[in-house]
Amino acid sequence: MANQEIQNGGSEKASEVTFSVVKPQLLVEAPKANEAVQFYKAAFGAVETARITQPKRKAEQEIPHIISAELQLAGSNIVVSDLADDSAPVNTVGTRITFSLETEDVESAISKAVAAGAVAEGEIVEEGACFGGRVGKVKDPYGFVWLISSPAKKPVADVEA
Protein backbone atom coordinates (compact mmCIF):
# COMPACT_ATOMS: atom_id res chain seq x y z
CA MET A 1 0.00 0.00 0.00
CA ALA A 2 2.84 2.41 0.83
CA ASN A 3 4.33 1.84 -2.62
CA GLN A 4 0.98 2.68 -4.25
CA GLU A 5 0.73 5.90 -2.16
CA ILE A 6 4.18 6.99 -3.31
CA GLN A 7 3.22 6.34 -6.95
CA ASN A 8 0.09 8.49 -6.47
CA GLY A 9 2.04 11.42 -5.03
CA GLY A 10 1.79 10.41 -1.38
CA SER A 11 4.46 9.44 1.08
CA GLU A 12 4.41 7.82 4.49
CA LYS A 13 6.71 10.56 5.83
CA ALA A 14 5.39 13.58 3.87
CA SER A 15 3.70 16.28 5.92
CA GLU A 16 0.15 17.15 4.96
CA VAL A 17 0.03 20.42 3.01
CA THR A 18 -3.34 21.83 2.05
CA PHE A 19 -4.04 24.78 -0.22
CA SER A 20 -7.00 27.10 0.17
CA VAL A 21 -7.04 28.64 -3.31
CA VAL A 22 -5.33 28.62 -6.72
CA LYS A 23 -5.16 31.99 -8.52
CA PRO A 24 -3.99 32.14 -12.13
CA GLN A 25 -1.97 35.34 -12.68
CA LEU A 26 -2.22 36.91 -16.10
CA LEU A 27 0.89 38.95 -16.91
CA VAL A 28 0.38 41.69 -19.48
CA GLU A 29 2.81 44.08 -21.12
CA ALA A 30 3.56 46.97 -18.74
CA PRO A 31 1.85 49.36 -18.15
CA LYS A 32 -1.34 47.79 -19.54
CA ALA A 33 -2.65 45.93 -16.46
CA ASN A 34 -5.23 48.63 -15.74
CA GLU A 35 -6.48 48.43 -19.34
CA ALA A 36 -6.68 44.65 -19.05
CA VAL A 37 -8.67 44.89 -15.81
CA GLN A 38 -11.13 47.27 -17.45
CA PHE A 39 -11.43 44.90 -20.42
CA TYR A 40 -12.17 41.85 -18.23
CA LYS A 41 -14.80 43.87 -16.37
CA ALA A 42 -16.47 45.06 -19.56
CA ALA A 43 -16.14 41.90 -21.64
CA PHE A 44 -16.77 39.22 -19.06
CA GLY A 45 -18.35 40.92 -16.05
CA ALA A 46 -15.31 40.35 -13.82
CA VAL A 47 -15.49 41.99 -10.40
CA GLU A 48 -12.36 43.63 -8.97
CA THR A 49 -11.80 42.57 -5.35
CA ALA A 50 -8.30 43.93 -4.64
CA ARG A 51 -5.69 46.19 -6.17
CA ILE A 52 -2.06 47.04 -5.49
CA THR A 53 -0.90 50.31 -7.03
CA GLN A 54 2.37 52.14 -7.29
CA PRO A 55 2.10 55.75 -6.10
CA LYS A 56 1.95 58.43 -8.78
CA ARG A 57 5.38 58.95 -10.24
CA LYS A 58 4.60 62.21 -12.00
CA ALA A 59 2.19 64.97 -11.13
CA GLU A 60 0.58 64.74 -14.57
CA GLN A 61 -0.55 61.12 -14.04
CA GLU A 62 -4.25 61.03 -13.24
CA ILE A 63 -4.32 57.58 -11.66
CA PRO A 64 -1.62 55.59 -9.86
CA HIS A 65 0.16 52.86 -11.83
CA ILE A 66 -1.46 49.47 -11.17
CA ILE A 67 0.87 46.65 -10.17
CA SER A 68 -1.70 43.88 -9.63
CA ALA A 69 -5.46 43.50 -9.38
CA GLU A 70 -7.45 40.50 -8.23
CA LEU A 71 -10.64 39.71 -10.12
CA GLN A 72 -13.50 37.32 -9.53
CA LEU A 73 -14.59 35.74 -12.78
CA ALA A 74 -17.01 32.85 -13.18
CA GLY A 75 -16.57 31.73 -9.59
CA SER A 76 -12.77 31.85 -9.78
CA ASN A 77 -10.17 34.38 -8.77
CA ILE A 78 -7.50 35.60 -11.17
CA VAL A 79 -4.76 38.15 -10.74
CA VAL A 80 -3.88 40.57 -13.52
CA SER A 81 -0.41 42.14 -13.27
CA ASP A 82 2.03 44.17 -15.28
CA LEU A 83 4.89 42.05 -16.58
CA ALA A 84 8.02 42.76 -14.54
CA ASP A 85 11.59 41.95 -15.46
CA ASP A 86 11.65 38.97 -13.06
CA SER A 87 8.22 37.59 -14.03
CA ALA A 88 7.53 34.30 -15.74
CA PRO A 89 9.20 33.87 -19.13
CA VAL A 90 7.15 34.13 -22.31
CA ASN A 91 6.37 30.70 -23.76
CA THR A 92 6.50 29.83 -27.44
CA VAL A 93 2.99 31.08 -28.23
CA GLY A 94 3.56 34.43 -26.51
CA THR A 95 1.29 34.05 -23.50
CA ARG A 96 2.40 34.59 -19.91
CA ILE A 97 0.92 32.89 -16.87
CA THR A 98 1.96 32.37 -13.26
CA PHE A 99 -0.10 30.32 -10.81
CA SER A 100 -0.46 31.41 -7.20
CA LEU A 101 -1.20 28.96 -4.40
CA GLU A 102 -2.00 29.97 -0.84
CA THR A 103 -1.13 27.83 2.18
CA GLU A 104 -0.36 28.32 5.86
CA ASP A 105 2.93 26.40 5.47
CA VAL A 106 4.95 28.00 2.65
CA GLU A 107 8.23 26.20 3.48
CA SER A 108 6.68 22.72 3.48
CA ALA A 109 4.80 23.41 0.27
CA ILE A 110 7.98 24.55 -1.49
CA SER A 111 9.92 21.57 -0.13
CA LYS A 112 7.21 19.20 -1.34
CA ALA A 113 7.22 20.80 -4.81
CA VAL A 114 11.02 20.59 -5.01
CA ALA A 115 10.92 16.95 -3.91
CA ALA A 116 8.48 16.26 -6.74
CA GLY A 117 10.81 17.85 -9.32
CA ALA A 118 10.26 21.62 -9.19
CA VAL A 119 13.14 24.07 -8.83
CA ALA A 120 13.03 26.76 -6.13
CA GLU A 121 13.66 30.24 -7.50
CA GLY A 122 15.06 32.77 -5.05
CA GLU A 123 14.36 33.09 -1.36
CA ILE A 124 11.04 33.31 0.48
CA VAL A 125 10.05 36.97 0.72
CA GLU A 126 8.58 38.18 3.99
CA GLU A 127 5.30 40.02 4.75
CA GLY A 128 3.86 42.42 2.20
CA ALA A 129 4.80 40.45 -0.89
CA CYS A 130 2.22 39.84 -3.59
CA PHE A 131 -1.33 39.31 -2.26
CA GLY A 132 -0.23 37.09 0.59
CA GLY A 133 2.04 37.28 3.57
CA ARG A 134 5.24 35.32 2.89
CA VAL A 135 5.85 34.16 -0.67
CA GLY A 136 8.26 31.85 -2.47
CA LYS A 137 8.56 30.82 -6.11
CA VAL A 138 9.13 27.48 -7.81
CA LYS A 139 9.29 26.45 -11.46
CA ASP A 140 7.72 23.11 -12.30
CA PRO A 141 9.34 20.64 -14.70
CA TYR A 142 7.17 21.97 -17.52
CA GLY A 143 8.32 25.58 -17.19
CA PHE A 144 5.31 27.00 -15.32
CA VAL A 145 6.03 29.30 -12.40
CA TRP A 146 4.12 28.87 -9.13
CA LEU A 147 4.05 31.51 -6.39
CA ILE A 148 3.36 29.87 -3.04
CA SER A 149 2.26 32.33 -0.37
CA SER A 150 0.63 32.51 3.00
CA PRO A 151 -2.75 34.25 3.16
CA ALA A 152 -2.72 38.02 3.64
CA LYS A 153 -2.70 38.95 7.31
CA LYS A 154 -4.07 42.49 6.82
CA PRO A 155 -7.05 43.56 4.73
CA VAL A 156 -6.18 45.04 1.34
CA ALA A 157 -6.73 48.80 1.01
CA ASP A 158 -10.01 49.96 -0.50
CA VAL A 159 -10.35 49.07 -4.15
CA GLU A 160 -10.69 51.94 -6.60
CA ALA A 161 -13.64 51.73 -8.95
Automatic annotation (TrEMBL):
It comes from Jatropha curcas. Residues 22-151 form the VOC domain. InterPro entries: At5g48480-like_C (IPR054575), At5g48480-like_N (IPR054576), Glyas_Bleomycin-R_OHBP_Dase (IPR029068), VOC_core (IPR037523). This is VOC domain-containing protein. Pfam families: At5g48480-like_C (PF22650), At5g48480-like_N (PF22656). Signal peptide: none annotated.
